[in-house]
Amino acid sequence: AYDATPYVPQDADLQTLRHAAAGCQGCPLYRNATQTVFGSGDASARVVLIGEQPGDQEDRKGLPFVGPAGGVLMRAIDEAGIDPADTYVTNAVKHFKFERQERGKRRIHKPPNLREMAACRPWLAAELRLLEPEVVIALGASAGKALLGSSFRVTKERGAVLPMPSLDGGGEPAGGALVATIHPSAVLRADDAARAEVYAGLVSDLKVAARLLR
Ligand code: URA
Ligand code: SF4
């Protein structure tokens, strides 16, 4: 089975994890991507934001949320009253999955499947174990499923304060809270008439997380 576990060093700090993740071959996604995009932010961050997987620009730059979706996210975080310096951003899957447009150069994002998400979960578990955040924010369906299982529905669970589950097995809570919301790319995909409302919904969910930090 696909599994990152053999690549994840025990008792490592974030820097050591990041270095090891650069060589991960736990699933086939490393083959076509440029590089592993590990999480980024301060080890003492109180808030961890989890996306789906790096996009085109993240794949090129090696950093999460530095493309258009990241722009929306940073604006929404700020508007919700969360200090970006208090956040660590990462993804459920650490390599960019894409399809090449026929004869074109454009790389089209493809959602990771459950096997790839399960394979990559040990990296996310290791990050969360070290960071012990007060609040985890799941951005979209893939992040929600990576944390809560395949029955997670973002439309149903968004904007609520949930107990953060442990990713280390056993199912006992990790301590800390979990708030789910939509993925910021949903704001970019929305048509002109709906975009402001979709964005306001994202900010409103992020405010639920912000209130937990007071
Ligand atoms: N979308 C994500 O889910 N993560 C990123 O890092 C960029 C875009
Ligand atoms: Fe490893 Fe995750 Fe990349 Fe797959 S997606 S190769 S499990 S880092």
Automatic annotation (TrEMBL):
Pfam families: UDG. SMART domains: UDG, UreE_C. CDD domains: UDG-F4_TTUDGA_SPO1dp_like. Keywords: 4Fe-4S, DNA damage, DNA repair, Hydrolase, Iron, Iron-sulfur, Metal-binding. Residues 38-207 form the Uracil-DNA glycosylase-like domain. It comes from the Bacteria. InterPro entries: UDG_Type-4/5, Ura-DNA_glyco_family4, Uracil-DNA_glycosylase-like, Uracil-DNA_glycosylase-like_sf. Belongs to the uracil-DNA glycosylase (UDG) superfamily. Type 4 (UDGa) family. This is Type-4 uracil-DNA glycosylase. It comes from Streptomyces humicola.
